[in-house]
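Continuing the batch. This is chain 6 of the set; chains 1 through 5 are on the previous pages. Same settings as before, nothing changed between runs. Recording input and output for traceability.
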Amino acid sequence: MSLDSSQLERFADDLYEAYSTGSPIPPLTDETEFSVEEAYDIQSRFVDRIGDGDPAIAAHKLGLVSEAKQEQLGIQEPIFGYVTEETVLDEPVIPTDEIISPRIEAEIGLLLDEDIAAPASTTDVLRATAAVVPVIEILESRFQGWTIPSAQDVIADNTSAGRIFVGETLTDVTDVDMPTESVLVSVNGAVETTGTGADIMGHPARAVSWLANRLEQRDDRLQAGELVMTGGITAAIDIEPGDVYNVTFGNIGSIDLRAE
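Output for chain 6:
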């Protein structure tokens, strides 16, 4: 059964209420099933509410970029969402009291200096990329206890977007072998998790080419000046107030964040 406009609006209202109050809700699919495209329709309405109807988009973000995660949630492709300007951290401090059950993961970010139109290839993405940057994403689920029974729930919830912090180091894309780019995440000086760029669909730029082609179906596109977050390289780590997190990449820089 398809969702009508009033149901799409109500689900978006529910997600925004959870976002704005910090009070999580049950998964939307507990009430009714809906399609992937309907999930993106809910997401769009939710993001509009975050920006009071005219959201300033800071980045596109990818999720479920590994086959294991896709199989876990029963979907055969990655998913995507948006980072709004108000969720970009200006200081290296995680405001845990403003975020529902935050989790941290490391990502490779691509800064574009050209539009990427569909059909797009990995080569097209590399040609359009001005620089590679380290990014930390602070994930946040609007669902109670991080209960995520379906990919549709994750999509509707704007792929669990919470906050991001972008590193200051800009590395020319020609100086980075993205599949072999390594990352190490430490908590209070102890290594918690590691990964490489190859964990992102074999090559982070391949994930971005998929995104460029998928966005065309939603009447959207990747544009010059945008940041694209290529998806979590590492497993997400629960954030606790007082902890210090260090993300160190092999070549593109490092970031230190403190949770308060």
